[in-house]
Amino acid sequence: MNRMTMTKKIFALLSLIGLSTNAARAAEPRHIARIAVLASGELRLDGRAITLDELDRALAKLPEDGVIWYFRENPLEEPTAQALATLEHLMDRRLPISFSSKADYSDYIDDRGLAHPRKP
Q1: Regarding beta strands 43-45 and 48-50, do their DSSP bridges make them parallel or antiparallel, or are they unpaired?
Q2: Residue 27 sits in which domain range?
Q3: 29, burial (CB in 10 Å: exposed 0-12, middle 13-18, buried 19+)
Q4: How many domains does the chain have?
Q5: 3-state DSSP call for residue 112?
Q6: Is residue 41 part of a domain?
Q7: Is residue 27 domain-resident?
Q8: What is the DSSP string of 36-104?
Q9: Among 4, 61, 65, 79, which one has the highest count of C-beta atoms within 10 angstroms of its own C-beta?
Q10: What is the pLDDT tens value at each position of the chain, 120 positions in all?
């Protein structure tokens, strides 16, 4: 299976279990946690480097109507251990996740793996 097919299957799986709500959350909601996993494995929350423990504490404070905007550098490459652990933490919390292919979160990825601009 090629990486693009694998990526599309991941998005479809997350959509099926109700975690990916990209179409419904394309416009900016009130409470957003912007999470980035860099190719180096560094984890960032709203532009600031953090650990998984710090991420857990921050997500616990996210209001009920909060949403995750998630970006990973080099998404077609094998995910780093940090990227997998981050997604696992997000799935455990059952928060809505909107994936982005751009570091500025200006787009979102739909359940077919296609990028669309976020609505202002």
Answers
A1: antiparallel
A2: 3-109
A3: middle
A4: 1
A5: coil
A6: yes
A7: yes
A8: EE-TTS-EEETTEEE-HHHHHHHHHTS-TT-EEEEEESSTTSPPPHHHHHHHHHHHHHT--EEEESSTT
A9: 79
A10: 555 555 555 555 455 444 455 444 445 667 899 999 999 989 999 999 999 999 999 999 988 888 999 999 988 888 888 888 898 888 888 888 999 999 999 999 988 888 999 886
